[in-house]
Every structure is written in C-alpha cells, then in structure tokens.
Amino acid sequence: MTTITQKAQPTEQKKNVLQDVAPPAKLSGKEIVYKYIVFLPLFIVSISIALTVAYINIRYKVPIFSSSISLLIKDDKSSRGGGEDLILENLTTYKKKTNLANEIEMIKSNSMISRVVRILNLNWSYYNEGNIKRVELYGNTSIHANWVELKDSSIAASIILVRKRESVYIEYGPNRYKRIFSGDIVEYPFGKMRIFFDPAEIAKDNKYIIVYQPTTLVASSIGGGLQIRQLSKETSILALSINLEVPQKGRDILNTLVNVYNDVNVEDKNKIVDNTIKFIDDQLNVLTGELGKIEDNLQIFKQQNGIVPLESQSSIEFGKSEGLKDKVIALDVKSEVIKEVRDYISSPLKKHEKIITPFDIADPTLSSLISQYNGLQLEREVLLKTTPEENYLFKRLEGQLEKSRASILEDLSNISKNNLTLNKTYQDQNDQLLSKLRTIPEKEREYLEIMRQEGIKEKEYLFLLQKREESEITRASTIGNSVPIDPAVSGGQVSPDVQGTYRSSFVIGFLIPIIFIYLIDLLNDKIIVRNDIARVTTAPIIGEVAHHSSQNRVLVVSNKDRSVLAEQFRILRTNIGFLLGIGVKCPVLLVTSSIAGEGKTFCSMNLAAVWGIAGKKTVILELDLRKPKIAKSLGLINEKGITHFMLGQVNAESIPIPIPNTENLYIVPAGLVPPNPSEMIMDPRMGEFIAYLKTQFDLIIIDSAPVGLVSDSKIIAQLCDATIYIIRQRFTVKKQLPFINELYTQNLLPSIGILVNDVKIGGINSYYGYGYGYGYGYSYNYSYNYRYGSERITLWTKVKSLFKI
Q1: Which residues is 243 bridged to in the sheet?
Q2: Is 730 left (phi over 0), alpha (psi -120 to 50) or beta?
C-alpha cells in the first residue's frame, strides 16, 4: 500500500533562478506619469468644471474697483512758505510737529469719516437688483429719498420698488404691493420718508432698492475698507486707497476725506487765534468803559477849572517826572498783563486751554515756559482724539501740564515782585521830583493825573487793537498741513481677479483628480501591480495570465492558438520546469489559492491543456471535493469520479475521461460531494490512486480546495512535487500575501510558485505599473500581432486601450 510522504523541496539555486524572473521594483517616473495619464478624461472633466465655475463666478460677481489718492503731510519746515509764514509764526505760539502715525489715525477716525458721509449723503444707497446680481446706482439714477421726519437716526430702513404694467409699487413681501408715485411719503414707526423717482427708469423685471443706514454704521464700513500707508520712510506722503463697486464713489470719498482732513486741521489751528481774538475783544470792552469814564472826568474837570498851563521854570523837572511816569505806566501795563495771565491760567475753566500772550512781557523765561505749556496743550488735544483719558500716556501728559503750569505761576510771581520793587523805586524818584513841583497849582496836578491815566489806557487800547488786527491776518492766512498731490483716481478692477481666478480654478481642477487617484490608491486593498506581491513575499512569480473579456472562460488554449493567453500558459509551462528541477519523471502539480474565485479551476484546465498540446499525456484531478467545477463546466455531470473510487465502487482504470477536442488531456471528476472531504483525502487509497496515475500519465495536475479556507490542500500537498499558487489581480486582498509568504518560508507546501491570474496589462489597473507594455517583450493585444481571434487592432483601439479601466 502506498502512503502519503513529503516530497523534497527544490534547491535554493532553482528558487533564485525563478526569483530573478521578476525582481521587486519601485515605480519609475514614466510609470507615475502613466498612472495619472490614464485618468486624463477625469482631469479634463475636473478642469472643465472648475473653469466653468470660475467663468460663472466672474460673469455674475459684482466687480470691485480700486481708487487712490496721494496726500503730502507737510512738516514744520515744508509748511513754511517764506517770510510771511515766519511773521505769522511769530504772532502766535502755535507750532505743530507732524506725527504720521497720529495723522493716519485721525484720517481713519469715525468722526472724520462721518463728516464725509454727511457731506456726500452716503447714508442713502440705491441698488438695481436683477435676477443674479445687485448693482449700486451711485450718481447715475433719478431715484433718491430723504427723511421728512426722523425720530431715531440709529435705525436702518429700506424700500423695494418694482414695476407692474405701467405703475410703480412698493414691495412689502410675497404678493404684497402698494402703488406709489414720485414724491409720496412712506411712513415708518420712527419717521417719514419721501421718495422721488422717474417711472421710466424702473424696468419691469428688476427690483430697485433704497437703503438708509445710520451715519456711524456707514462710517465704520468705509473706515474698515480704507487703507492708508506711508509710501516710504524717507517721505511724509500717505497713500489712501479704497475698493468699491462704483469707482466714482471711491474717488468722491477720498477727495472729500482729504478736504475734511484739511478743514479739521485749519479749525484746529484757528482755535488759538479765535481764543486770542476773544481775549482781546473782552479786554477792549473793559478799556472802552474805562476810557469813557476818564474822558468824562476830564471833560468835567475842564468845564469846572479850565486847562492849567505848565510853568516854564519846571519844564526840566517835569520832563524827568514824565519819564519816570512812562516807566511806571509800562510797569502798570506789564503788571496788568501778568495779572490777566495769572487769572487765566489759574481759572479751572481755562485748565485745558492754551495761554494767550499777545503782549510783550519782555521776560524770555516766561515766554519759553508759556511756549512749552501751549505745546503740551496741543499735544494733549491731538492725543485726546486717538487715546482715552485713562491711558498711561494721557496721564503722564497731564502731569507734565501741571508741572509746567506751576512753573509759569512761580515765574509770574517772581516777575510781579520785581515789578513792585521797580515801581517803588520809580515812585520814590517821582516823589522827589514832585516835591520840586509843589509850587504848581493843585488843580494842574489833578489835571496831569487825569491825563496820565488817559494815556495809560489809550496806549493799552491801541496795543490791543494792533494785536487783534494781527490775529485776524493770522486767521485769514491759515492753511491745512496737507496737500493732495493729485485728485483721486480709479485704477483697474481688483475683484474678481480674472486671471487669478482662472489660474486658481485650473490648479484646483487639476489637484482634485490627483487627490482622488491618491485616495483610491490609499484605500485600495487589492493586489494591483506586480510590486504589491514582490515586496511582501519571497515566493517566485512563475507567470501571469491576462484578463479575458469573455465571461465563460473554459479552455482558451488549443494546438494552433497564438493568442496572448496561449503564449502566457506556454511561458508558465517553461517556468514550471525550472520550479520542478531535473529528474522528476511524472510531476504532480498542486493548484490552489487563498480563497474561492481566484481562477484556480480555469488555470488548472488551461495549464493541463498547454502540456497536452506539447505531447505530454496530462490528467486533471478534480480534488476540490467541496465545490467541484471542472466536470460541470465540461458537461461531465453524472460521471464516476474520485469519491466513487475511494468508496470502492469503481476501479482506477475506469475514471480518467478524455476531454473532447483536446489531445492528450484527461480529467478525473470529483464524483459525488462527500460529507467528509478531508478524511477521504487522507485515506491511503488516495496515495495508491496517485501512484497508478503516474504509471499512465506524464503529468498530473491536482485542482484542490483553497488552502486559506480548509486543510485539504495541505493534506494532498504531501503527494505533490510543486505548488501553483493562484493570485488574482484586483481580487486577492493584500493582507493574504503574508500568509502565502509563511507557507513558502516554512515549506508548508512543496515548491510554491505564484501564478497571477486575470492580469490587466493596460489602463488604470495595469499589472505592470500604469503603462500598457507587457513585461516579457510583447505588448498586450497588438505587439507581435498576438490577439484574440482575428480581431483587427486599429489606431483608435490602441488609443482607447490606454484609458481602459
């Protein structure tokens, strides 16, 4: 009795020979290119869609245009035009030091832009809304509105005008309309709005929208879009720009903003002049009253006593006395000024106002302190526009003002003390002179006193009149500290960016297929390329069987067949010879796979057929006793088979059946499906049957059950010389490859050689990468004129084969 014994494995040298048939390789640059070229239609569709979306976006998106203006901010030197400016600068202590950062914040301030909104009436916006986009009608429409009555200016409002037949209506909602005429008043809970329009301008298919927004909201919107930058560190030129739908609106805003900025600067400068003029006017009113009283007293004195002539003998002493009196008068004037300045700076109401010094005090220290104090006050006014009072910088500035104010008061006190000393000295000297004039009548002295008082007040009055005229000249000559280099201009369209949009859309359309292909490769768990097998298992790949378009593939190899499949099986036959080695008289080949559906039966039949047409008497053993297919596909349904032999119902000589129309090819059917296939295969009679077949045939091919599911193949492998392990491209999962490698490295099956079935040579699932060349020197479908049947391969067929899936 023959028993099942383990066959010897092929030598390591034979394995190396087979392994060299297809070494592992990485994807070349050409293969990577082919990988994506086969998806060219997908790239074309994706890019076309992206460009179409870009075109629609550009076509229906409201264009935005840029408007800009350059503004020169003059500093202390550049703001002086010549001698006149120097004279005006000397008339006042006002000097401005330019800080571009502060100027930028002032220009962008909400209060500044709010003035622009009010001047241009930007609270009101008018739109023409079509089916797709809304267009602003700025300066190009007869539609306008205004408030007849507005109780709450912080509330926004809108009106929609539509045309139905020949009349204009207000749209309140779906199918809710109210007829309106130009000049009618629309009432709101918070006010009344009057609307004007030309009925001929209202088109039938469009909506015309009137929108009112509060000033602060519009100013915030404009300020958010306003961009201001310094052209360079070397210049004091600011570039103002804004992007709006209507270029004219952008130019109007920038031009008006520059004018408002200059007006604010002029107003700021004129505050000091106005305060000076007010101070002088107040003093003139006081002096006018005092002069009136003196003149009245003089008139009464003359009426009562007449004019008293001076004595010639006292002319010299009197002249000296008059000189001393002039000095006393000057000291009185100076003391009066000092008193006014002290009262002015000590007044809580004048705490944050500049000190007006239209008089020459002739004290350089005091002039310097007042100039410093006014500079700090000006700095405080500028800082107050951009910084809250709680800010550290603001508090520090307040401290500096207090110190400066204290220094001025201290200096005024010192000057007053000096004046008192001088006045006493002059009085003493004058008393000495007057003692010599005692002979002059008392009435004459009284007359002189009146005249002296009149002279003091008259000189002070004339001095104030002169300073007032100078202040008026200063006010009339005040100009802003900025000059627009050119009027505002509008540039090109900034949005949508046509070239940028098309460029970005093209890139996106190009990247989407790449990401899609990458994700497909990343998520794919099937064996696709040859390298998927070679990098996981060291078992040799002994052949590949190409994909066949026929759904019912049985025997595709015949005696005169020169098709690709036939040649592939002939190559497989040659490689199996290397796998078996030398000296095997009647080799027994085990054909198995990991799971069902990988083409094990098809490969067994055609491998047997290619040996048969080579003159080798070949038999196929249908040992997949659980799910036999070969006999059924050949129409041998009721034939006796292996199970009948194992049960002793037939002898071994009677069950091999020749396959029709195929030379030297026989089949041993499985017979009835047994309840215990594994135990039946383990029966010693199986070994006897194999031994008998070796005496009758040149080659035995065993079609066994999948080794990954049942143990049948491992049992029968002990009677075999080599194993043909079937892997199906695009079907076998990659996680099964480590199992195959384990079978090979641990010699659990004899001389394993991998046969890759259902190989797709071209297209996106190409077995040899992503091209369409076949790896053994001939091309799929057409190289060497190998083809299925008599099909003629046209150029169009070749092109289509590049993209087939």
Answers
A1: 66
A2: left
- Under DSSP, the state recorded for 115 is H
| 311: its two tokens | 């004595």
CA-nearest of 451, 506, 530 to 756 is 530
Distance, in Å, from the CA atom of 622 to the CA atom of 670, rounded to the nearest integer, reads: 5
Mean pLDDT of 85-114: 68
Separation between Cα atoms, residue 290 and residue 541, nearest integer Å: 127
Residue corresponding to tokens 């008061």: 409
Residue 541 φ then ψ, to 5°: -95, 115
For residue 733, what is the DSSP state?
Answer: B
Question: If you write DSSP's letter for every residue of 702-764 in order, what string do you get?
Answer: EEE--TTT-SHHHHHGGG-SEEEEEEETTTSBGGGHHHHHHHHHTTSSSSEEEEEEEE--SST
Model pLDDT for residues 205-247, shown as the tens digit of each residue = 788 999 999 999 999 999 999 999 988 888 889 999 999 989 9
CB–CB of 674/643 below 8 Å?
Answer: yes
Residue 541's SS3 state is strand
CA 345 to chain centre: 56
DSSP category for residue 387: S
Q: Is the pLDDT of residue 799 over 80?
A: no
How far, CA to CA in Å, does 385 sit from each of 107, 261, 655? Answer: 11, 13, 111
Burial of 201 (0-12, 13-18, 19+ CB in 10 A): middle
Give the model's pLDDT for residue 503. 92
What pLDDT, in 10s, does the model give residues 674-691?
Answer: 888 888 888 888 888 888
Q: How far is CA 24 from the centre of its chain?
A: 45
Q: Which long-range contacts (CB under 8 A, 24 or more apart) does 650-657 make?
A: 652/688, 652/689, 652/692, 652/693, 653/692, 656/619, 656/693, 656/696, 656/697
Q: What is the pLDDT of residue 27?
A: 58
Residue with tokens 């043909």: 724
**467 in helix, strand or coil?**
helix
Q: 53, 502 in Cβ contact below 8 A?
A: no
Cis peptide before 496 (omega within 30 of 0): yes
Task: Taking residues 124-143, report their average pLDDT.
Answer: 87
Round to whole Å and give the CA distance between 101 and 98: 9
Dist. CA 739–CA 382, nearest whole Å? 83
- How many angstroms separate the CA atoms of 646 and 685, rounded? 6
Where is pLDDT greater, at 506 or 3?
Answer: 506
Which residue type does 111 have?
Answer: S
What the block records as the tokens of 701 is 């091919």
Q: How far apart are CA 454 and CA 456, in angstroms?
A: 5
Confidence grade of residue 792 (pLDDT, cut at 50, 70, 90): very low
Residue 483 and residue 70: Cα distance in Å, rounded? 9
User: Do β-strands 237-244 and 167-173 pair in parallel, antiparallel, or remain unpaired?
Assistant: unpaired
Please give the single-letter amino acid code of residue 296.
D
Instruction: Give CA–CA dist 189/241, Å, rounded.
Output: 39
Rg (CA), the chain: 56
Task: Fill in the DSSP letter of residue 612.
Answer: H
pLDDT band at 315 (very low <50, low <70, confident <90, very high): low
Query: Around Cβ 626, how many Cβ atoms within 10 Å?
Result: 16
Q: Within 13 Å of residue 117, how many CA atoms lie on the same side as its CB?
A: 22
Question: Vertex 406, ends 402 and 412: CA angle to 5°?
Answer: 145
Mean pLDDT of 558-570: 75
Instruction: Dig out the tokens for 363 from the structure.
Output: 């004290």
Span between the terminal Cα atoms of the chain, in Å: 54
> From CA 795, how far away is CA 570, in angstroms rounded?
29
CA-CA distances (angstroms) from residue 129 to 135, 210, 330? Answer: 6, 11, 78
